[in-house]
Amino acid sequence: MSPLREAARARPTRETDPARPALERLRLRDFRNYAGLELELAPGPIVLFGPNGAGKTNLLEAISLLAPGRGLRRARLEALDRDGAAAPFRLEAGLRTPDGPVDVASGREPESDRRWLEIAGQPVRGLAALADLVAITWLTPAMDRLFVDAAAERRRFLDRLVLGVYPDHARRLAIFERAMRERSLVLRQGPRDATWLDILEQRMAESGVAIAAGRRELAAGLGTLLAEPDPALPRLRLELDGSVETWLDDMAALDAEQRLADALAAARAQDTEAGGAAIGPHRSDLVAIDLATNEAAPRVSTGRQKAMLLAIVLAEVRLRELVAGDLPILLLDETAAHLDPTRRAGLAERLLALGAQVLLTGTERHLFSGLDGHATFIHVDRGLIRADE
User: Fold this and answer.
1) What 3-state DSSP class applies to 136?
2) Which of 17-26, 151-160, 345-354 has the lowest mean pLDDT?
3) Is pLDDT at 388 greater than 80 in this prediction?
4) Over the chain, what is the mean pLDDT?
5) Domains 3-135+326-388 and 154-287 share a fold
6) Which residues on neighbouring strands pair with residue 48, listed in sequence order?
7) Long-range contact pairs involving 265-269 (C-beta distance under 8 Å, separation at least 24)
8) Quick one: CATH architecture of 154-287?
9) E strand or H helix at 261, and its extent?
10) Domain boundary assignment for the chain
């Protein structure tokens, strides 16, 4: 039985599930266009609507900083400070987690581009601890070109999805990248230390095969969900285009590790000239294929690419519930505008069925009519907010 099916069988019923993760309170100071903001949030769908430039995406960005990393825009911290503010930005949040309520505070350290973090009033070193509280995933207009941009963007997207389901993926990525950097340094310095290179390449092989295996497991789980009929979104097949992932089709993980270590050793001269490593999971790519037309994502319309991306994100939310037994907070920025009325209605049904806290943005309230009676509607305009009945 696959790990996915085992997780699904072991998953608690909705009656015994812990409280769904949610952001209950958000307070901002000198963040982007917000001099100050205090917002109470409901656990279900929340619609932020208003004109372009009003600050809707800024709110989602602030929420995304409750996850490890640089947020949904990947901006430098100094760019998050409000123009003309006397002090760096600060955010405070009240989270409902499976283990109970938790207060989180964070902001930019003065005179640096580093972020401080407090959890339950206690200073915490590093941002990784945020992953233990709640998961947050997002879809933004900046991701619309994901299927036509460089493969590195798709790998980053893929690894973020894997991390949401398999938290140990981050450690494997860090080990691989650190070993690859050290190997590059040794190759450049010369004369080469063959023993140390053997050790580094073995680390890369072990962590690299584990990375590829995690991606394969995620793609298989998502593929099962994405093949199901859906009136709102396209049915998809996901493929991984990478040497290591392909090897795992035909050989055991230990054999793949040895093959990768041998390939890295054979490529030392080439990698000395080019830098990095010519082979490994850092060269892999994600391919999405529309099952209705058998076309790869780059060959379909921009609107359909957006729908394919949305389908993958929603499938990852469902997969996380199957494997981890909880749900992430979902941030959907300007998503409904790309869908026709029938697909918007279908999306609303899907979001309500998920049961996750989801925040959506759009310029017009009518784009979210399928959520009437179920969602909290908030009008946003030039950094000011008000509830809309």
Assistant:
1) strand
2) 17-26
3) no
4) 90
5) no
6) 361, 378
7) 265/197, 265/198, 265/201, 268/187, 268/192, 268/197
8) Up-down Bundle (1.20)
9) helix 253-266
10) 3-135+326-388, 154-287
Residues 3-135+326-388, CATH architecture: 3-Layer(aba) Sandwich (3.40)
Is the distance from CB of 209 to CB of 264 less than 8 angstroms? no
Tokens found for residue 347: 């999306």
Residues 6+ apart with CB under 8 A from 73: 57, 61, 140, 142
Q: Name the token pair of 252.
A: 């055991």
3 — pLDDT class (breaks 50, 70, 90): very low
**Residues comprising the chain, all counted:** 389
Q: What is the arithmetic mean of pLDDT over 346-358?
A: 91
Q: Indicate the DSSP class of residue 68.
A: S
The pLDDT assigned to 126 comes to 86
Whether 50 has a pLDDT exceeding 50, the answer reads yes
Question: What is the Cα–Cα distance from 66 to 328, expressed in whole angstroms?
Answer: 12
Can you give the pTM of this predicted structure?
A: 0.85
Which residue matches tokens 């990768």? 260
